[in-house]
Write a structure and sequence with these properties.
about 200 residues, single chain, two-stranded antiparallel sheet
């Protein structure tokens, strides 16, 4: 099937879609600050996390997490020096400990949980190693490359009882979970729409 889009129509449609995408990020994806407590959190109740991977997916996760009340990033891990600098900028801590070895994060007894945004082929190893080290972990999608990897990850979680969440920024956001709960129709750019419903 061929499309008879003129160059002008293509550019207009692309510009509209890009504008809608930028607007949706600015308007729809803001975290709901009303849901977060503004009460001071005593240091003994603070959640101390480490970020493994501070690249394209990890840096927005880190930036969002450090602005949550009662949450503190105490270590970052990435292979690249520039991302060590970025982690320090995002956290506002020039003294933030950084490393290239994720095992250093797992061995840090002060780390309560981990945010992992690493290449897909590392997901299984990091999730299993994290739960075996007694750490809760949020890992970006996809969970695994194969069903067998997913089963191994689930088995490690069951064995250790640690919390494991696999997701993506938008699907894991308060906006999306609220929309799913209310089963609203969500408008999409270019006139399409989709019903979002919980999986049963």
């Amino acid at each position: 099937m061929t499309s008879h889009f003129s160059r002008r129509e293509f550019l207009q449609t692309s510009a509209t879609a890009a504008g809608a995408l930028v607007a949706s990020n600015a308007i729809l994806l803001e975290s709901d600050r009303a849901m977060a407590s503004t009460a001071p959190v005593p240091p003994s109740d603070r959640l101390r996390f480490a970020s493994i991977g501070v690249g394209m997916q990890g840096s927005p996760l880190l930036d969002t997490a450090v602005h949550l009340p009662g949450v503190e990033c105490i270590q970052a891990c990435d292979l690249y020096d520039g991302r060590h600098t970025l982690a320090r900028e995002l956290t506002g801590r020039t003294d933030l400990p950084v490393t290239r070895r994720y095992q250093d994060v797992l061995n840090n007894k002060d780390v309560d949980c981990i945010i992992a945004a690493v290449p897909d082929h590392w997901h299984k190893k990091i999730v299993i190693d994290a739960v075996n080290a007694g750490k809760d972990i949020y890992c970006e999608k996809p969970m695994s490359h194969t069903a067998a990897e997913g089963v191994a990850m689930a088995d490690a979680q069951k064995k250790t009882g640690r919390i494991v969440q696999i997701g993506s920024q938008r699907v894991s956001s308060a906006l999306e979970s609220d929309s799913v709960r209310r089963q609203e129709r969500i408008p999409f750019p270019l006139g399409r729409s989709s019903s979002i419903r919980p999986i049963r």
